[in-house]
Amino acid sequence: MGKLPPITGSCLCGAVRIAVDGPLAQPDACHCTECRKHTGHHGVFVDVPQAQLTVTGEDAVRWYRSSEKVRRGFCGTCGATLFWDPVERDWTSVAMGLFDDATGTTLEMHIFVAEKGDYYSLSDGLPQNQH
């Protein structure tokens, strides 16, 4: 059996493209205030080891340092949310909305639900962590 092709994706305008070499872990839905403001709703990200992530068009990526330990990446051309990146770790969280095709994953849990917006409810039966 041969190696599976990478899982690919891009921002809205295509200036930034990604490829993940290997299967994806289960993503989390983060409802913290920072993710809500960064994405416009809640953020759904999947942790990808940096060794498995290829980014093309890095010159279009803009970074916002939202805390001492985290930076958030977005496309400087179209503004699409791209990454949640803990700067001292060997992985990057990739926004699930970037992927071009089916990912073979399902949402694992909701996190930071104590900070979620009041305009929606969580009724999918998944675990909900308050923080």
UniProtKB/TrEMBL annotation:
Zinc keyword on record: yes
Taxonomy, superkingdom: Bacteria
Residues of the CENP-V/GFA domain: 7-121
GO molecular function: carbon-sulfur lyase activity; metal ion binding
Matching InterPro entries: CENP-V/GFA, Mss4-like_sf
Gene3D superfamilies tied to this protein: glutathione-dependent formaldehyde- activating enzyme (gfa)
Keywords assigned: Lyase, Metal-binding, Zinc
Keyword match Zinc: yes
Homology family: Belongs to the Gfa family.
Name of protein: Aldehyde-activating protein
